[in-house]
Amino acid sequence: MILKITIILTLLLHLQVVLTKEIEDELIFVQAIWRHGDRAPSKLPYPNDVHNEDKWDNGWGQLTKKGKYQMMELGSWFKKRYINSFVNATYKSKEVYIRSSDIDRTLMSAQSFIFGMYPNQKHSGHKLPTQVVPIHAPAPGDNDPLLRPDDFECPEYDKKVRNINEHLYDELMGNYSDIIPFLKNHTGFEGDLKIKDIGSICNVKIEMIHNFNQPSWIFSEWPLHYNKTTLDIVCDIKKQLRLSDFQNSELGKLRGGYLLDNWLENAKKIIHHPDEEHKKMILYSSHAETILALRSAFNVYPDDITPYATALIMELYKTDNSTYYIKLYLKSHNKPLEDLQIPGCEHKCNFDTLTKLYVDMEIDSRKELYRECGLEYCEKTGGVVFDYAD
C-alpha cells in the first residue's frame, strides 16, 4: 500500500514538473498568414455557364458575404487564443501589424478578420467603430513577391515547373481521354480543350456553395473512373495541377523562399534584440498560392488546395533557460487546430535547428530573388517590393 502511494506521488510530482515547465515557456511572438474568405469566381468557369457576373453582388473575384463571415470567425478564434493572454483587447499599433496583398478580397478579408479579433466595444453617442485597425498594403502596380509570389515574373520557376508538369499534363489528358470530348461538347471552349480549361470547370463548386443550379452533365457518373462524377474528375485534375506547382524544394524556394526568409528574420529580430521594442503579432492576408508556396518552402506539403479562411500560424516561445522554439499550426475554417510537423525537427522545433534546416531555402533580398529567378536586377526594376518593417 505504501509502495502504491509512493508511486502515485512520484507520478503526480513528475506531472507537476512537466506542467510547470510548459507554463514557464513564454509565448513571445506570433505570425500568421491566411487565405481570403469565400469569393466569387474570377471569370466564368466555362464559356457556356449561364451564371455570369451579374449574378454576383460585387462582381468577379470579390469577397462574398459568406467569405466575410468566415474571416470574422477566424478573427474570433484568434481573439480567444491570443487576446488578453498575449495581446491587449484594445488594438495597439506597437503590438499588432496587419499586411495584405493589394487585392480587394484580401483587403476585405483583413477587415472582416479585424471585426472578429477586435469586436466593437460599448461606445457613447458616436457611430464610429471603437476598434479601427490599419491594414498595410503595397501601392497599386508594385511588385509583391511576398504575398503574391505566383504573380511575380520568375523565368527560372516557369522553366522548372514546365519541365515537371509536361509529364503530368500528358498523363492526365491520357487518363481522361474518354471524358474530353464530353467536356468539349458541353462547355463551349474553342479549339483544343486545354488541361487548365478542364481545371477551370471545377469553379462551379463556388456557384454551388451559393445554391446556383447546375446542368445535369456536371453530375454525370463515369463507371471507368470509379463512378466519379464529372465534377469530381475536373476538381481532382485542378487539385493535381495546383499542387504540382509547388511539389518540390526548388519550386518552393523560388515561390516561397522570400516569405520564408521574412518569417525567420522577423523572429530573429526578437530573439537577438530582446531589449528593443518589437511587434508581438504580424498577420498577413493573402491567397491560396501564397500559403502553398510557404508550406512548400517549409517542406510541409499539403494534400489539398488551401481552403478559404485558413491560416498558417507560427508561434515563437522562449524557455526558462533562454532557448527558443517554434510551433507550426494550420487553422482551417470550422476545424480544430492542426499541428504541422516540420521534417527533421520536433514539434517544439528549436529555432537554431530550424534556421539550419532552411538556410538553403531562404531568399534574403530583392536582389537575390531576381538572381534566383534569372532576371537582371537594377534598383528601378519592377517597382518597390513592399515588406514589413519594424
Automatic annotation (TrEMBL):
User: Does the keyword Signal belong to this entry?
Assistant: yes
Molecular function (Gene Ontology), one example? acid phosphatase activity
**Has UniProt tagged this entry with the keyword Signal?**
yes
Instruction: State the organism of origin.
Output: Strongyloides papillosus
Give the Gene3D superfamilies listed for this entry: Phosphoglycerate mutase-like
Signal sequence, renumbered to the chain: 1-20
What positions belong to coiled-coil segments? none
What keywords would UniProt list here?
Answer: Signal
Q: What InterPro entries does the record point to?
A: Acid_Pase_AS (IPR033379), His_Pase_clade-2 (IPR000560), His_PPase_superfam (IPR029033), Histidine_acid_phosphatase (IPR050645)
* Protein known as: Acid phosphatase
> Which chemical reaction does it catalyze?
a phosphate monoester + H2O = an alcohol + phosphate
**Family under the similarity heading:** Belongs to the histidine acid phosphatase family.
